Amino acid sequence: MNKTTSWFNVTSLVFGFAFLYVPILILVVYSFNASKLVTVWGGLSARWYVELMHDQAIIDAAWVTVRVGILSASFATVLGTMAALVLDRYLKFHGRALFSGMVYAPLVMPEVITGLSLLLLFVAIGFDRGFWAVVIAHTTLTMCFVAVVVQSRLVTLDRSLEEAALDLGCPPVKTFFLITLPLILPGVVAGWMLAFTLSLDDLVIASFNTGPGATTLPIKIYSMVRLGVTPEINAISTILISVIAVGVIVASVLSHRSQVEKERAERAVFLGG
Amino acid sequence: MIEAVGPIKRKFAPWDDPTLKPFIRFENVTKRFGDFTAVDDLTLDIYEREFFALLGPSGCGKTTLMRMLAGFEQPTEGRILLDGKDLSGIPPYKRPVNMMFQSYALFPHMTVEGNIAFGLKQEGMDTSNINTRVAEMLELVKLEKFAKRKPHQLSGGQRQRVALARSLAKRPKVLLLDEPLGALDRKLREETQFELMDIQMELGMTFLIVTHDQEEAMTVSDRIAVMNHGVIAQIGTASEIYEQPASRYVADFVGDINLIDGTVSAVDDGVATLHCAGVDATIVAEAGPGEVAVGAEAGFAIRPEKVQISLEAPPAGTPNVLSGEVWDIGYLGDISVYRVRLPGGSIVKATVANLTRIVERPITWEDKVFLTWPADAGVILLK
Q: Residue limits of the ABC transmembrane type-1 domain (chain A) (predicted)?
């Protein structure tokens, strides 16, 4: 590898990162703007954050969003983990290829279509649109992401560990909770974090399935923006970005740590002989 | 004073006792995976307290046979009896059988103690008894100091011991060992083989070991079943299998063997005469199992250590003499291997123990040598 940094490398790096992060940076900086006009810098202030705390509509929306996120991420984690187990373990059942395709399809499905089809389903079965409809819709959206994360963890798990537990007299369900789950836990937690952040920033699917009293934060922001961008929106967006950044960082640290652990174990085997 | 002599060591051979019932019985067991037949109509009896080895190359069905006994696979046909009880339909977690896995399969999130106690906890044993048993097991495998360690803090040899202790902790009726020493280096493997034998004697359990290493099988076990393509090629003690191989496959798989092809020209009371046109010789030897008849294509099988090599021609009229030229010499320290080229071009190996610290070899490359052997040293096996 060439260690000297050429001007070309530096430029492309700066340009690339600028492209990705300058808009977000501007939003964050302007959220601390004292002026009421979004485009005019009026000095440093946290007044919009204070004002946010007094805006009951936004606090309600944030609370709805967090509850939807926690519930849908939890449902998605249970369902996604089960799907991953089936995909990884029962290799020979008929229609496995179809099943795995169907689990992963929502990853690339346009959100508009997912949202619309769920809306049609809820109307058809007479399910009221609102909080629970959004929870179910987000579970649908995020469970395939959980399945992918958990499955990548499962493939590295030695199957003979479970066989050893069975051999020592542990029934299958207990084996799952005593052996399998503790060993895939980093993947399960990472999957939950991913599902939570996906639910947090979803606008399209939520707006199809929401109802009165179930306005999520992205929907609230979007409707506020249509009346004009206020510094308050900058402030709330900054908070949202921070929450999501923390979630993504925690998820990646968890999966990185499990990777490091695995490598360390392998190295120990190698050195130990 | 007879007491001073100590107990007379009786030969352990329950398989020769017709009044004894087998402890484990595979009865016409067949296992198919799709089109592939891993185990083919196999019947096998194993007796209590026996150390039994399944020996064969990878893919011969030995591991499948063991996994069926553990309950991880179900026989397609036939049944398996343990102590007279049919095991079919009994899940692995209800069988009185424990297994030591090839990969050891230690639970990485539990300590050494936790691993050993796992099976006892499932049994519902109370804590004080579990602690006593775990301490006993740690002592047995000499790992008392490592009780609180996690598996990744142990060396390969220590992990192997933890796996052994864990599989013995429940005092199973049968211990299954799947290539238990495969990951250890040669020295450690030899030591552990003898330890395994001691442990088996001490605990009086039935051990079933699966291995592809013939030395390991011969060292540890009372009897060996040599397997090939899902069937048993031969069952016997180590010396029976080595000295009286039932087929060319067994002769070739277990140990080193010279095979000289020819046609049977006479058979008289179990002794056959083999005419070997290729090497221009006539060999008289014991006829092996099967229909060794005049005109049959057969081969003379003899172990290299039983071939004597000499520079001087034996007296005229000596039977079973081959002559050739030294082609290669391999010095292995304890023995030297002479590869002798016969007139037809085939090679016969003869090993000679290096009893003295020779400086100069009496026999060297391109010497003309004579190969002889005692009359009962080899056997004639059908093709």
A: 62-254
Establish if A165 touches chain B: CB-CB under 8 angstroms.
yes
Q: How many domains does chain B have?
A: 2
Query: According to the model, what pLDDT value does residue B12 have?
Result: 83
CATH code of the domain containing B315 = 2.40.50.140
Largest CA distance in chain B: 79
State whether ipTM is beyond 0.90.
Answer: no
Tell whether B212 and B274 lie within a shared domain. Answer: no
Rg, chain B, Cα only? 25
Residues 6+ apart with CB under 8 A from B25: B43, B44, B45, B46, B80, B81, B82
What's the N-to-C CA distance of chain B in angstroms?
56
A101 touches chain B (CB under 8 A): no
How far, in Å, CA of A124 to CA of A111, rounded?
A: 20
CA B118 remoteness from chain centre: 32
B123–A160 C-beta distance less than 8 A: no
A265 touches B: beta carbon within 8 Å: yes
Domain hosting B304: range is 256-382
The answer to the question of residue B5 being in a domain is: no
> What is the tens place of the pLDDT at every residue in A16-36?
989 988 988 888 888 888 887
The neighbour count for residue B171, using CB atoms within 10 Å, is: 13
Cross-chain residue pair B98–A165, CB shorter than 8 Å: no
Chain A environment of B94 (Cβ under 8 Å): 169
Contacts of B192 (CB under 8 A, 6+ apart): B157, B160, B180, B181, B184
